[in-house]
Amino acid sequence: MRRWSIPVFDLFGIHFRMHFSFPLMFCLLWMLEMGRAPLVGLRCFVLMACLLAAVLAHEVGHAMMAARHGIRVRAVVLMPIAGISLLDERAQRGLDAPSEIRIALAGPAVNLLVALLLGVTVLLTRPEAHLFTFPWLTPFNLPRSLVWAQLFVGGLNLLPAYPLDGGRILRAVLAINGDQVTATRRAVSIGQFFSLVMFLMGGALFLGSNTNHLWIMMAGVFLFLALQLEDRSMILQAVLERVRVADVMTTDFIALSPAETLAEALHRPLDPPQEEFPVVRGNEMVGVISRQQMAASMQEEGNGYVQSAMRREFLVAGPQESLAAVLRRIGRSGLAMIPVVEGDYLVGIITFQNLMRKLTALSLRRPAAKTPPTAPAQSS
């Protein structure tokens, strides 16, 4: 998500990011329409803003329906056809079919409702916009495009092509009599077929006439990009669900005593380096502290004891938990380390600092093997 998108804003507690395909589409549209009218660059920008507003309304519809089912949308990557949503832990474990269908239908329903309201407004106030005249999406008739952008996003998402909403409904139906991952793979295959057909059909029409059919071709491209994001997420989640905490935790770590001074803890030689420390009294873990916290506490209050600066609220993991569950926990809490506890004993720690090294070593040590598939990480 971060590599191919930029943050734009937070709304209703949801972190929205814009995929690079939005500015790419703007540049392509501008180059194709250049010279046809004054201020064509500004008109193309406003047209893309209309499309962005339609996608945003679509994703807010999903988020509202998800909230009614007790599911929180954490982040959304906005693309010119829809958004890729990252939902909370409950959704990542797999939604039941009725819930997924209702959440999937909420986005297109909002687009159709907004299009109806805007369409009536345009017909009453701007009859010269010729609302039903082709081309429907054009920078040279922005009132008409404002309405059709909503219809374009809502109607396109009803296609049975995963990860569009119609494809999610298809997956939910297929999963009723089978497992979700097999249903997802079938839906992905259908989505790939639709993306190819849309690209070829739109390209043929585009080359044969004018830029009005560019939208069909680009929808196929964006659908392909969305499929890649979802497919990679599904594969990554399946891998993380199979890896146990015991496989990747670090057992060679330093634990601090609450009675140590901050200066002693900071100047202790560490090999390997360690930024976060569990704090242990006897056999009982009582807190966690980072080098940054210790340095800040010393700067503000002088050389005190570790117990005065440590965090007493922390999360723990069990050795047999899946790495996927622990990473979701780290992401929600914002912590850089989670202690691994078995019974009453601290047996290891997991940090982002050493996780990649452990996973790399694990992949080199274990031969590739066929394993049962698990549920995908993302849904919408």
Report how far the terminal alpha carbons are from each other.
15 Å
Oligomeric organization of the protein chains: single chain
Order of helices and strands: EEHHEEHHHHHHHHEEHHHEEH
| Percent helix | 55-70%
What is the β-strand count?
8
Q: Strand content of the residues, in percent?
A: 5-15%
- Major beta sheet, specifics? 4 strands, mixed
Tell me, briefly, the overall form: elongated
- Count helical runs: 14
Description:
Strands 1-2-3-4 form a four-stranded mixed beta sheet, sandwiched between helices. A two-stranded antiparallel sheet has the order 5-6. Helix 4 packs antiparallel against helix 5 (142-156). It is built from 14 helices and eight strands. With 380 residues, the chain is of the alpha+beta class. A hairpin with a 2-residue loop joins strand 7 and strand 8 (345-351). The protein has two domains: 5-242, no CATH class; 245-365, CBS-domain.
